[in-house]
Amino acid sequence: MTRQMTGAAMVVQALKDQGVEVVFGYPGGAVLPIYDEIFQQNDIRHILVRHEQGAVHMAEGYARSTGKVGVALVTSGPGATNAVTGLVDALMDSIPILVISGQVPTFMIGTDGFQEADTVGITRPCTKHNWLVKDTEKLSEVIHQAFHVSRSGRPGPVLVDIPKDVQFATGTYTPMEKTRTAHYQPRVQGDPEQILRMVELMETAERPVFYTGGGVINSGPKASQLLREFVAETDFPITSTLMGLGCYPASGKNWLGMLGMHGLYEANLAMHGCDLMINIGARFDDRITGRIKDFSPGSKKIHVDIDPSSINKVIRTDVPIIGDVTHVLEEALKLWRARGRKTNKAGLTQWWGRIAEWRSVKCLTYKNSDKIIKPQYALERLEALTKGMDRYITTEVGQHQMWAAQFLGFEGPNRWMTSGGLGTMGYGLPASIGVQVAHPDALVINVAGDASWLMNMQEMGTAMQFRTPVKQFILNNERLGMVRQWQELLHGERYSQSWSESLPDFVKLADAFGCKGIQCKDPADLDDAIRDMLAYDGPVIFDCLVEKHENCFPMIPSGKPHNEMLLGDADTQGVIGAKGAVLV
Amino acid sequence: MSPLNIKKGSSSHSAYDLRDPNAVVIETHTLAVVVDNESGVLARVIGLFSGRGYNIDSLTVAETDHASHLSRITVVTTGTPQVIEQIKAQLARMVPVHEVHDLTTDGPAVQRELALFKVSGKGEARIEALQLAEIFRANVVDSTLGSFVFEMTGTPEKIDAFADLMRPLGLLEMARTGVAALSRGV
Asked: Taking the C-alpha atoms of A273, A279, A285 and A289 in order, what is their torsion angle to the nearest 10 degrees?
């Protein structure tokens, strides 16, 4: 049966057929027909944001915490350009989202019409793929293809740009099952020969380490389950990138903590000293590798990735395995078990001995104070008081983000939403709303810095309107903390523009939005204040006044290898050379 | 070029990798990319090269299969072997890209380019230009009392050689299509 309908009706029908429950968006002239359709139905909920960037980050938060495709709807011109940051953020972190944008009518395209922008041109390098649909007959198929592309292979953002006349015109609806997707089918099964080599190397390695990333989480909960079994049965140590936190539980005995620029000492030294690196769904980002030349010099490297272009991009791999993490882990685990569950026990015992020495350094130690709240202490208390709760954490970008990664423990995947690749300040607040929309009864906390949080604070209006009780836990140091830290270490303590002089009164700001505001500055009051925040049934802005000059350690300075970590302030004198200062 | 002076791209035809692993080898590869003939597809491919800092020495594109809306992009690029591999992987993962062939390593291939040369001259130089054109099998497609337009098809090297000869004889303008290439045999 063929169904005739308008382009606008097709959009809503296609979203329903794809199982979409919620759309984050902002109306405008070029999307009014779609908004009219949304008005006349109740299956899809619309969350009205305050700025289109917020809509895209909410869609990201929704997608990261559910594994489903997040959807945002924006108008032409400024609506679409405001969505760009979120698209690139999702591209860098491989998050499946669909942005639908309105466009001026086809006959006006190219005339510099009101609110016209070359949206597909602007977003071409910001998306996995994008489409400008000029014919209503093709619209529904394109939307179904967009969902397919977004979630297949390495997930990512897609955009469909729909001129207003295409939304008004009538055409034939192509259902999901009749949509042609054959030509985009990324490979998911790993090469059996390479999987055999992987298992053989794992059987003999003396100093192996699992290096896991966001790919494990993108592959679905089963990937995390298989990884846990593999780690438990081999007794290999495991570390993860910022994006992969939660794929192995932080309470697990083989957990080394996060690696990388602000990763744990034991994790980075294990990476440096290993003889077998098993990279599962991570991409050798520059935050991880430090100086390429000296990156893990003595190891054989296995790299499992669904994206062939990740293989050998920066680090040469000995055993490349192109495939989906779940499939590859399943095959590898089956083969390793069938071959007799062999590991180099003597080597491993020694290896764990060395790791125990590195652990004993206790690299996260900080000097606490009973007069002022240390940011690390604030997060330790937040962790202790929310332990065991149905908890989701989002963050902004900066020192607080690194401390959150160091001091909060994640027991499962999809519980930690942070902007890794792009490092988007302003991500956390809207993302927390997206997570809360997906999980209405869960505890959702955005660990924020004062500067990042202000970048998208208008979304508190969204949180109030849609009754999402998100907790905004702001570590307020009245500084751009990470910028300040780099200026201290690299630029002779010349703190150029890294000081926010006229911060708002966050408690009054909370009042103005109609939510609860809490300020805390005395370490003795902190536990009660956090409990107040958790007990309140609604959004909370928690202004936690912390030490202003705290630096985030450990730290691998730019351009240094893993074994030249700085553990504290005493280590920092003159360590970063001119070459390192050029890097970011 | 490596110290061993091995020809560009030759290692894949040998059982041994003779390249010096420490030398930075810059190779030239001809890639054939079969893509959906949809709007913006060329911008996507070019954007990939400019966005990631890859080189384009030559680029040609035209629809080659009208029925299934496929176009063939032939791109000549240079880079280290690692960069060439990246370029191929980056191209292959694009949604409208169906196939990526490396004509430099996939086996023998033929490469042709068409060029037009406008040469002005009188007397000796004019006769000399005409004689050289015959030797190079270039056709005269336009002539006036003071000028010729030659048309020539050949490898980029042949076109370069002809242009070098024409320059002192009054080469005014030159237009070339860029390389089209196919693998030999089936």
From this structure: 10
